[in-house]
Amino acid sequence: MAHKKGGGSSTNGRDSHGQRLGVKRFGGTKHQPGENVGQGKDDTLFALVTGHVKFEDRGRRGRFISVTPAAAEAVN
């Protein structure tokens, strides 16, 4: 009886890349979270509420991304 596994494919032999989801840099500039936007430890920005995304350039302070809640837009 054999004491070692056969020479098949290895169990952990995957070479896949990470998914890199979310907005991190756009146009070479790092974005910062605005209203209703959170930031993950890998700088991924994500919405905290359902609504419409707004990109805003604030000059020296940088580019901010905020989310306007869908319910608030229906009232306006």
Low-confidence stretches: none
Q: What is the strand tally?
A: 6
Q: Into which percent range does the helicity of residues fall?
A: under 10%
The neighbouring-strand order within the major sheet is 1-2-6-5
Count of helix runs: 1
What spatial form do the alpha-carbon principal axes imply?
Answer: elongated
Explained architecture:
- By secondary structure, the protein is mainly β.
- It has a domain at 25-75: OB fold (Dihydrolipoamide Acetyltransferase, E2P).
- The protein is 8% helix and 36% strand.
- It has one helix and six strands; from the N terminus they run E-E-E-E-E-E-H.
- It has one helix at 70-75; strands at 25-26, 29-33, 37-39, 45-47, 51-57, 63-69.
- The chain starts with 24 loop residues before the first strand and ends with a helix.
In short:
This protein has 76 residues and is mostly beta strands. It has 1 helix and 6 strands; from the N terminus they run E-E-E-E-E-E-H.
